[in-house]
Every structure is written in structure tokens, then in C-alpha cells.
Backbone:
């Protein structure tokens, strides 16, 4: 009579082992899936960063070319604009230096 109890315990143990194998298989599958999704996200981000770099580089080159063309077309206005910008920067620098000097007294 003890034999059926042993068989049912053995069956229960096998069922538990099957359940554990099933769960670990599912977990392994989910881990592989998560790893794949993460690597795809990294690749997408890297691709987007490279594309943004190329666009920014092209835009900077276009801006530089436009600036050179503008300077060639209107050299006097370009020199006047640079001189005016220098005067403004110098005036702001002098004002800040005077303000700093006055605040120390």
C-alpha cells in the first residue's frame, strides 16, 4: 500500500520539475527578447546620433559658405559689421570692468 503514495510523490516531483523547466524556459526566452530589444534601441540611438551629426556638419558647412559668399559680395558692410560688433563687445567689457572696479571701492 505504500507504493501508490510513493508514485504520487514521484509524479508530483516530476510535475514540479516540469513546471520549473517551463518557467525557466520562459524566463530565458524573455531575457533573450529583452536583450534583443535593448540592442536594437542602442543601434537606433546610435544611428540617429550619426544622422544628426551629419546634418549638423552639413548645415555648418552651408552656413560657412553663405557667410563667405556674403563677405565676398559686400566686403565693406562686412568690415563695418565686424567693427560695430567689436565696439559693442569692447563697450560692454569696459562697462563690466568699471562696474567691478566701483563695487570693490
Residues:
Amino acid at each position: 500500500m505504500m507504493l501508490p503514495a510513493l508514485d504520487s510523490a514521484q509524479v508530483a516531483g516530476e510535475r514540479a520539475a516540469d513546471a520549473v523547466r517551463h518557467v525557466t524556459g520562459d524566463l530565458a526566452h524573455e531575457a533573450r527578447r529583452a536583450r534583443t530589444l535593448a540592442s536594437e534601441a542602442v543601434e537606433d540611438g546610435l544611428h540617429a546620433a550619426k544622422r544628426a551629426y551629419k546634418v549638423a556638419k552639413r548645415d555648418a558647412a552651408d552656413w560657412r559658405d553663405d557667410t563667405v559668399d556674403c563677405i565676398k559680395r559686400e566686403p565693406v558692410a562686412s568690415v563695418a559689421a565686424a567693427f560695430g560688433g567689436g565696439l559693442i563687445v569692447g563697450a560692454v567689457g569696459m562697462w563690466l570692468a568699471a562696474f567691478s572696479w566701483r563695487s570693490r571701492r
